[in-house]
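If I may wish for something, please sit down with the protein I am sending here and say whether C-alpha cells and residues agree:
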Amino acid sequence: MGALRRRMREHHDMGRHGDELWMHLGVSPVGAVSVFVSACVLYLVFGLLLQFLRRRINISASTFGIALLTLIGAITARGILGESPTLLGTLIALGTLVVLESVFGRWRSFLPKRGSRRLTRQPVVLMVGDKVQLTELRAHRVNEAHLWSMLRQQGIVNRSQIGLVILEPSGSLTVMRTGAALDPALLHGVKGIDQILGEQDDEEPEPS
C-alpha cells in the first residue's frame, strides 16, 4: 500500500514538473494566436514608424537616433511576446516576422516603377554654391547644424568649395564641388536641378 502511494506521488510530481516545464517553454492556442496577431500589427506599425524617422536619423547619424531605434525595437519585442515570453512563443514571433518580411519584400519588388517612385522621396537640391535652399531644408526637416556636419564629413571646410548639394532619398548627401561639370543624365529626376542646368547652359559661351 505504501509503495502504491509512493508511485502515485512520484507520478503526480512528474506531471506537475511537466506542466511547469510546458508553462515556461510552450504556449496555449490562444497565446499563439495572440503572438501572431501582435507580430503582424507591430511589424506594420514599426515599419511605418521607421519610414517616418528614417530621414532624421540618417541625416544626424546621432547616438540618440541609434538609442531611439533600440528602444522602439525593445518595446516592439515586448509587445509581441507579452508579459511572460516562452520558447515556443518566441519561435512563433520570429517565424511570423520572417514570413511578413519575405511577403512584403516580394511585394515591393513587383511594384511598378511609377508606384516605386511614390514610395521613395525625390532627391532634391539643398545648396547651390554657398546658398542654402531654406525652403527645401524646412520641407525635408533638415537641421542646418546637421547639414554642416554632413558637409564636414565630405571634406568641405569652406562654403566656397561647394558647387551643389543634393539630399538623396536615403537621407545621405551628394556634394559636387565648385567647377565640376554637371551631367544632365546623372542629375535626372533631382528636384530643382532643371533651373540650375538652364542657367549653366545660358552661361556657356557660344562657339565662334
Observations:
- The first strand starts at residue 124 and ends at 128.
